[in-house]
What does this fold into?
Amino acid sequence: MKKFSVILQYLSRYKGKIVVYMIFNILSIVFGLISLGMLSPFLSILFGEGGSGGSASLNTNAIGGLKSLLTDVMQHHDKSTVLIVICLLIVISTFLKNLFYYWSSYISSPIRSATITFLRNDLYEKILLLPIGYFTERRKGDLISRMTNDIYEIESSVVSTLEGLIKDPLTILGYLAYMIWLSPWLSLFLLILLPLTGFLIGRISRTLKRQSKDASVRLGESLSVLDETLGGIRIIKGFGAELLLKNKFLQINDTLYHIRNKMNARRDLASPLTEVLGVVILTIILYYGGMLVFHNHGKGFSGGDLISYIAVFAMLINPAKNLSTSMFNVQRGAAAMERVEELLKAPVTIHDDPQAKKLESFKEKIEFRGVGFSYEDAVILEDINLVVEKGKTIALVGSSGAGKSTLADLIPRFHDVTGGKLLIDGVDIRDYSLKTVREQMSIVTQEPILFNDTIAANIALGKPDATHEEIVRAAEIANAHNFIIGKEEGYQTNIGDRGNKLSGGERQRLTIARAVLKNPPILILDEATSSLDTESERLVQDAINKMMAHRTSIVIAHRLSTIRHADEIIVLQKGRIVERGTHDELMRLQGFYRKLVEMQEVK
It folds into this structure.
C-alpha cells in the first residue's frame, strides 16, 4: 500500500471513525454468522429424532451464549416452539446485521467524499504554488487530465474500493474462522485453494497498472489537442488544417479506445473468474463433506453442519468476488495515483524564509548585483549588474531569446536567481516574504490575461475589497470607462472565456485598469501595444503613460519607439548586457541598439 501513502494520510485524519466503521463491520459479520449458524439446529430439529437429537446437534454447533438458551428451550418445549425461537433469532440477527452494515456505510461514505475533496483541493493549491518554469515544460492538457480524469480514476477505483479492502477481508476472515471451527478437515481445502485462486487473479490484474498509465497519458494528449483547437480555431480554419487536427485527435482517441478495451476486458474477468473458481472449490467441498457425513470421520459432523458450511461458503463467494474486483481496481488506480502524486510532490523552488520580513513599502531602488540565472543546463542570464532607482523607467530591449522576460520575472520572484543577488532597498529579495514583495508590483503582459467573470471582478482582481467608485476611477485612468458603460450590463458584464467578448484594445485596457486599481509603486510592462491597431494603441499607450507617472517601471520593449523617453535602456544579447544608456546615447554608439531601431524604421 506504499503507493497509496497519500490517500492513507488523508484517511488518517479519520482514525476514530475508521475504528467505529470496523467495529460496525465486525458486528455485522457476527450477526450474519448467527443467522447462518441457526440453519444447523433448524435442520436438526426438522429432520432429527426429537428434542434429544436436536440438543445433541446443538451442543456442537450453536454460537456463543445462544447454545445454552436453545438447549434449554429444546429440553422443555416441543419442536414447533423451538422452530419459532430459531426463526425469530434468524430475523433479529439479520436485522442487526443489516443495521450495523448501514451504520458502517453511513460512516464511510463521508470519509470517501472528504478524501477526494481534500486531494483535489491540495492538487489545485500545489498548482498555484509551483514555479512558472514548471508549466513551460508540461502540456496544459496533461495537467488538466491529472486534475480531472486521474482524480476521477482514484475516486472510482481506489477510494471507493478501500472500503471493500477493509470490509471484505474482515468478512472473509470471519466466515473462514467459523468454517474452520465447524470443520477443520473440510476447511483445509479452502486454506490451500483460496491462496492459489488469489495468485491467479493477481497475475491477471498486474498489467492493469501499466495499461491505465498509458490511458491517462493518451487522455492528456487528447485534451492538449482539444485545448489547442479551441484556442486556435481561427488559424485552423484559416489554413484549412481541420483534417490534419482531426486525424491527429482521432489517432490519439483510437489508441485510447484500444487500451481501455484491454483494461475493461481484464477488469471484467475478475468477477466471473472468481465465481467459476468458487464453484470448483464448492464441488470439492460438497464431495469431501458428503464423505465426512457418510463415514462419520468428522467427529460428529452432520448433514445439517454440511448445509450450514455450504451456506457460509456461498456467502463467502460474494466478498471474495468483491475483493478480487477491488484488487483489479486498485491496480488500475495505482497509475492514476502515481501521476497525481508526482504533481503533489513536484519541488516548489520558490520558498519563503520562515523568518522572512515584510516589505512594507518600496523606498529606494532595485539592484541586480552580479545576477545569473540558469534553467537546468541552459544559462539564461549571466553577470547582470543593474540599478533601478525609485521613480525611474528602465527599458529592456534585445532580440528574441536575449533574456528580457526572464530578467523581469526575477523581480516578482517568478524565478529565483541562481547566481549573484537581487536586492530591494539593499535587502536580498529572498529575505522578504513572497506575498509582500508581489504586493508592491503590478504586471501588464503583452497578451491580456482575463478571466471568465464580470468586468468589475477582473479589474478588482488585485484588490477584491475595492469599492465601485475605485473600480470606475481605475477604468477612467485606463481609458476603459466609456466602452464599459456602453455595454448592456456595464461593469457587471461577463466578458467570456479569456475576455473573448471584448476587442483586443478593450481587453488590454482592462488589464491596465486592474494594474492601476492595485496602485503599486513598481510596474512591470511587457509591451502592451505591440498587437493592437492604431486607434487602440493610442488609447492604450495613453493609459500606460498615465499609469506610469510617479512609478518605478520596468518595460520590456518590442516597439522601440515607445521607450525613447526611458531613463535608461538596457540592451540584452544572449543573457548579457551589451549596451546601456538613454536613447540618444545608444544611437550615438552606433551599436546593436541602433541596428534594432533602424530595422524597425525600415519596416
Summary: Residues 49-65 have pLDDT under 50 and may be disordered. The chain has two domains: 2-344, 365-602. The longest strand covers residues 378-389. Strands lie at 365-375, 378-389, 393-398, 419-424, 427-428, 441-444, 522-526, 552-556, 568-573, 576-581.
